[in-house]
Each structure stands twice: as structure tokens, then as C-alpha cells.
């Protein structure tokens, strides 16, 4: 979102840092699906992004709200036979799914849908096409291929991060709350998004200490070092190895 290069979920990852910007600290078990909006991109769902900075943008739009961070046990979800997961890679397929949700005609019972993010700008474009669909007397999902291709060229989904929509409580059982922080009041220009840095430091911990990806992400993202990282743009300019040294000193201090 908001101009950053697109982050895609790597299907090989066993654990993934994910973020949610809102008005308060919010644990997975506190999501209220009955209050979720049915007209969101993928219908009623708990939505998470792959970028800390994008979640920070959403939180600041809510009167300097709160960024929450979590670890998604992607491997556990993939191995959970009770779950249905849809991973949408193709932008046209994502647009088709969104239009079916807007039309109220999407009937598949997925627990988790992973796909492109739509933000406020794309919402404006879609509402314009909604008016055109009403004028034509057809659902948006019945637009011609040519019209949908024009929509895609305007929506520019390829520049946005992917999002993960958890549509059931069963899916959310694979999301672990790690921490939260009030949104930054001032614009911070970073070398890297904290999510990318967390993944790199976790990789170092995995190789050095034999941790699983889930264990390494959880340990680092619970640390004061990660909390400092989300507030200090200069810290993000350090190499993952230097940030690991700072983390190690924190662990040594207990």
C-alpha cells in the first residue's frame, strides 16, 4: 500500500510477520466477525497486511491509533485439514473475486484468502465502476474482459502489498499476538520496512541458534529492539547483523 514495492507471501515460509492498524490493541480472539463490514474487499473478515509501515498508515488515519503485530503460523494453517485456504496470485483473478464479493455472489467457504490489497484510492475507482454497472443494469462481476482489464490498469494492484483475510475464527487460531504500539505521529522514512528487517534477523537466529522460523520471529518481535526499530528510522539503516548484536545485548541484560 501507499507506494511501497509490493510484498508477496512466500508459500515456503513456515511463519510470517503480519500487521493490523486500528484504534486499539487487538488480539486475534477479540476480533468480532459480527461487526465486520460485508462490503470490504473480501467480505467480512479480519484483515492483516505484510507491512508494518502500511499498518502504521492505517492506524494514523484513525487518530493516531495502534499498530498490532502478530506471527501467522503459515505451516500450521497449511497442515490444518479443517481449513480451506485460497492464495490468489493473479491480479485479474483477485479482481474477479472482489467483484463477486461486491455483488454478494461469492459463495465459496474459505477460511483464509490471501491476495492483493485494495486501499482508499482503489475504492474510489471501484465505486465509479459500480455506478457504471448500475447504469448498464448488470452486476460488476459480469463486466466484459475488456472493461475488467481497463479497471486493472487503473487499480494498479501490482504496486500494493498482499493482504491476508481471515474469514473464520478457525483460521485466526493460527495467528499469535506479539505486541502493539501507538502509531508514529511523524512521517518516518526508512531504509526497510520493519517487517523485512524482522524476517532477516529471524533468519540469522534460525541459522545460528537452530530456532524454527516461528520461534525466531516471535522472539525478535517481542523484544525491545524490535519496538525501537519501529520508531527509529536510523536503526533501520543498520545491517541485520548489527541489529542482531543489539538484540543479543538486550537478551544478555535479561
What does this structure look like?
The chain is of the alpha+beta class and 254 residues long. It has two domains: 179 residues; 67 residues. Helices cover 41% and strands 15% of the residues. It contains ten helices and seven strands. A four-stranded mixed β-sheet has the order 2-6-5-4. Helix 3 links the parallel strand 4 and strand 5. Helix 7 packs across helix 8 and helix 7 packs across helix 10. The longest helix has 17 residues. The radius of gyration is 19 Å and the shape is globular. The chain starts with 15 loop residues before the first strand and ends with a helix. The model has no long low-confidence stretch (mean pLDDT 90).
Primary descriptors:
single chain, 254 residues, alpha+beta, 2 domains, four-stranded mixed sheet, three-stranded antiparallel sheet, 10 helices, 7 strands, globular
List the helices and strands and how they pair.
Layout: E1 16-22, E2 46-49, H1 52-60, E3 66-72, H2 74-78, E4 85-87, H3 91-103, E5 112-116, H4 120-136, H5 145-155, E6 162-166, H6 169-172, E7 175-182, H7 194-209, H8 213-221, H9 224-229, H10 240-253
Parallel strand pairs: 4-5
Antiparallel strand pairs: 1-3, 2-6, 3-7, 5-6
Helix pairs in contact: 7-8, 7-10
